[in-house]
């Protein structure tokens, strides 16, 4: 109800005076209609009847009224602005986290991290977002159980690394990790980590009478021929000579005596046979022609008498008088 309606319509409306000043009607004042009539009216920026017991004077929402006047889907302010009511009108101002650099320009995002407004605790990093920011753990860290600190992720312990086994080993670093050659078994080269040949570089510890054999990432010891390994755990502690004369009764021909040697043995021929090499005995006879290398003269008994032929040594083949290969 406005003043002109009060003037031309007849109804019981309490008049006001300077004394009561519409004290029972919030946000109203005593408005003069003419020389004899004064009535309560809502103050500027409020609307209502200002009648005791009637609708109260409420603040005018200019933003809502402006929106109602627009077509469906339209907005009073831009996406990064909010509508703010003034006393007599409305205006658009930037949302929190946005700023207008120059009059008439759109509101743009404030990078709180860049200007130092981002308040993140120790071990956190500030990450800008549209209209705000967040505090996150840096790469290689995760939030602890109570959410107060970022703690380092042990990529080595949790197998979150790309180190190549067995040539590399993982070294944990704050927020990261690195791969190093798994020395001394592997060494660093321009082509990456390669096997260190301990045998070739004399970086091995093998007992006497053994040979170093290189393996991937390590080496092993093997006793030489004629020796037997003495093992403790999985390590050869020494190589013991094999007594072939005791362990191999037929190591030598019956016309010879077996004599053990370190790592080997030899046969000592008994008369009338003669020594041929270390382990062969032949009868001291003569063949029609001189036998070739790696051959000896062998006597064969026949009904018509003894026959002598050149015969190749064990392990060789051919005509003993010409060649044994």
Note down, in words, how this protein is organized.
With 325 residues, this protein is mainly beta. It has 6 domains: 3-60, no CATH class; 63-109, no CATH class; 112-152, Laminin (Ribbon); 210-241, no CATH class; 242-284, Ribbon (Laminin), CATH 2.10.25.10; 285-325, Laminin. The chain is built from 4 helices and 28 strands. Residues 6-13 have low confidence and may be disordered.
- How much helicity do the residues have? under 10%
**What Rg, in angstroms, do the CA atoms define?**
55 Å
Tally of structural domains: 6
Mean pLDDT: 85
Task: Please give the count of helices.
Answer: 4
What strand line-up does the widest sheet have?
Answer: 1-2
Secondary structural class: mainly beta
N-to-C CA distance: 134 Å
Q: Give the CA-based shape.
A: rod-shaped
SS strand fraction: 35-45%
Number of strands: 28
| Low-confidence runs of at least 5 consecutive residues | 6-13
Name a few traits of the molecule:
signal; 28 strands; calcium ion binding; glycoprotein; rod-shaped; disulfide bond; 325 residues; heparin binding; mainly beta; Laminin; two-stranded antiparallel sheet
In short:
With 325 residues, this protein is mainly beta. Helix content is 6%, strand content 40%. A two-stranded antiparallel ribbon has the order 1-2. A two-stranded antiparallel sheet has the order 3-4. The chain has a two-stranded antiparallel ribbon with strand order 5-6.
Topology:
Blueprint: H1 3-8, E1 28-32, E2 38-42, E3 46-47, E4 58-59, H2 62-68, E5 81-85, E6 90-94, E7 98-99, E8 108-109, H3 112-115, E9 125-129, E10 132-136, E11 141-143, E12 150-152, E13 168-173, E14 176-181, E15 186-189, E16 192-195, E17 210-215, E18 218-223, E19 227-232, E20 235-241, H4 244-247, E21 256-261, E22 264-269, E23 273-276, E24 280-283, E25 295-302, E26 305-312, E27 318-319, E28 323-324
Antiparallel strand pairs: 1-2, 3-4, 5-6, 7-8, 9-10, 11-12, 13-14, 15-16, 17-18, 19-20, 21-22, 23-24, 25-26, 27-28
